[in-house]
User: Fold this.
Amino acid sequence: MKTMKMSLALAGLMMVAAPLATAQQINAAGASFPAVIYQKWFDEYHKMHADVQVNYQSIGSGGGIAQLTAGTVDFGASDVPMTDEQISKLAVKPLHFPSVLGGVVPTYNIAGVTQEIKFTSETLPGIFLGTITKWNDARLAKDNPGVKFPNEEIQVVHRSDGSGTTFVWTDYLSKVSPNWKSKVGAGASVNWPVGLGGKGNEGVAGTVKQTANSIGYVELIYAVQNKMAYGNVKNASGAFVKADFNTVTEAAAGAAKNIPDDFRVSITNAAGKNAYPISTFTWLLIPSHIPDAAKAKTIKAFLQWMLADGQKYAAGLSYASLPKEVIAKEVKQIAKIQ
Amino acid sequence: MMRGNLIWRKSVNAAMLSVTAVFTVLAVCSLFLILGYLVYYGGRSLDWNFFTKLPLPPGEIGGGMANAIVGSLKIVGVAALMGLPFGFLAGVYLSEFEDKVFCPLVRYVADLLNGIPSIVVGLLAWGLVVVPTRSFSGLAGSIALAVMLIPIVTRQTEQFLREVPLSLREAALALGASKWKTIATVVVPAGSKGILTGMILGIARISGESAPLLFTAFNNQFWGGGITQPTASLPVMIYSHAIAPYDDWHRQAWAAGLVLIGMVLIANIAARLVLARGISVPRA
Amino acid sequence: MATPAVADITAIRRQTTQTGDIVARLITLAFAASIILITLLLVWQLWFQSAPSRHKFGFAFLFSSTWNPVTENFGALPFVYGTVVTSILALLISVPLGLGSAIFLSELAPAGISSALTFLIELLAAIPSVIYGLLALFTLVPLMRDYGEPFLKSTLGFLPLFKGPVYGFGLLTGGMVLSIMTIPFIISVSREALLAVPREQREAALALGATRWESTWQIVVPYAKLGILGSIFLGLARALGETMAVTMVIGNDPKIVASLFAPGYSIAAVIANEFSEATGQVYQSALIELGLVLFLLTIIINGVARLMIVATTRKGSKR
Assistant:
């Protein structure tokens, strides 16, 4: 009994303490918005470089910033750029690397409605403020002739965690609705007037999918992958635009030419005939100094790959690839990582 | 009139018998419902991939939770290595070395520790391990689980050691054995069945815990670099997969739920069977 | 010549056995004392790490209902509300069911059936919280959303408790999951308390002509009431601290609304959801302060429960 216990303990210790021979474990966490393409990238990269394991956990942009500040991850990810105040809290200055473009769509689950719903700068804030409470409200009907809305209450679903997706969504709502701006404002985590909270883009999509007559906001891929309906949004030029590769790319076109050196920019409500108004860059937050030389080398190599071959995966996963000008500028920034 | 009253009282008696029986059946039925759902949905979802493959990127079908199964074994294993001896020795003290003030205090505190919400224990491990080491790690998760394991094992050990008859101890002492020798060679082996039961039940309890691992062991898409790195575990995977929108992830969550409950229930039933065989004291 | 040598040897042997005993005592004492140390460490950690939040808000933290990470204004009230409401709902369901089952199992059922059923019910307590959550998410939530809550709304909708939109997720569903999780505790401990009542009490009642139910309800149960009360407190303490099952169905909205259909938030759920992404000292320490509040709540209730249970067993064994 005693010797068996001893040998079991020893075997356990060996199994536990022995990491894979030369595997390099890199830990990252952050936004759920780009999580789908990040997981794909890290999976593909692992297939090409079997010794590199980049463990990315989708915990929300707030989480990415928080864990980067705490130093528990090697790099973070966020759809909302870090503020100056947040950057000042870090001992090592983080570099923002836009990784991909995406759009946040209003996704809904309404009984009997299969058509695409058109949302405007009046109806969208109204629904999320709780001033428009029923689907068959006149204001929605006005923009959607021919759609038979049920006489049901609107179940709003929002994020319960600190989210860059929330930031993009509320940033857009603040830009188009002074009422929203004064009552709620823009932020990664806001005081929602109404609705259920879901954790991550995954949680919001899951909840909307399960709850009849609900509406939530998610990155495009989550609606597409789960075959959920999503609506068109009226952009600054007055056109009702559906989010896709082209409309999101167009939203970034204006900003791409004059993108600031630190790459922190908002492209919501962009000008452009067919620009999707709720688009955004999403960033990897890489420390400018990485003490572990091997990790630094791997991360830089990954960034090179991301800006070249990685971009090819964007279209297939309903994201949009980065504009050429932005890529060129970013490649130069890679050199800044030491 | 008396007879009427008696009939009323007798019918109340019969009625309450039925009502309480129904309540009991309801309670037991909920167990069978739970198991039924898990066996049905989990059984349909289990496949070979589940046990052998790593998780795939969201939206892709056919992934598995091999790393979570191994991760759970690692985390619980290390927790057991830390918590079992700790709890055992503390239980020995409480049972064998009586102390008027100190022992009741330790017992009371152990029971309180047992009742602390698991998420708060997770906060403790986070503050003690994750913050100073600036890293999520399976080890932090193990420490949280060990803190939960210790009071269970302590109280069980104490209880079963106490049940060993005084005559055994006195016989050993009369033969000239020292106290510690008596404990080690006579009392502990006599109570070993119960102590083992307590240990198995404790391990079964902590292997199902998810909350203390959320921000200690975190999670991992890959096999990971050992116990000092973020480690995947079954309970955390069940949580993250259940709240996601992907039908394939839901399927995997059910499968994981079945595997987890299978392990927990087998451990529980085995432990009680061990106990039911009786204490291993030879008849004098 | 021989006697002094033997005396020496016996003296040495006595010394070494005494040393062995002392060492054994010290080692086991160290581990036993460490249990107290661990608990103190936990309290200190919670106290120390929640300092920024405590200094900023003081006692007002407990009574403020704002939870705004943007303006860094935090209050515990919505979470205390959600925690307490779901726990009370759980008890409202599990106490009658649990006590009734305990009475059946200890008083009215034949011994063989009683132990078999008790074993099965105790297995319920072994099921992990996340699995309760999994089941509740996929079976209970749709059930409540499509049948349960609309039914309550149509029959009892005049009460503010049952007004408002029906989500499936919410305080009511949270309470129901918790009730299934607390039942085994109430049954297990109440049954022990009832079994501890001396036989003479029952026999005296029956000798006086009472029916079995009358003997149980009017004599045995009041005799065991401390233990039963203890089991309720124990169940309450468990319900207050439950994390995963509640997080998955409560709706995650930090608001205080009268309706039970509304989404709410519990202390454990908000820590689980928001801790890994709390940016900034104040946010993080506010969550830890919530953990401290929960810790104190469960300690107090557990402490009271244990005292009651100890009092019962002592009372029962007196005779």
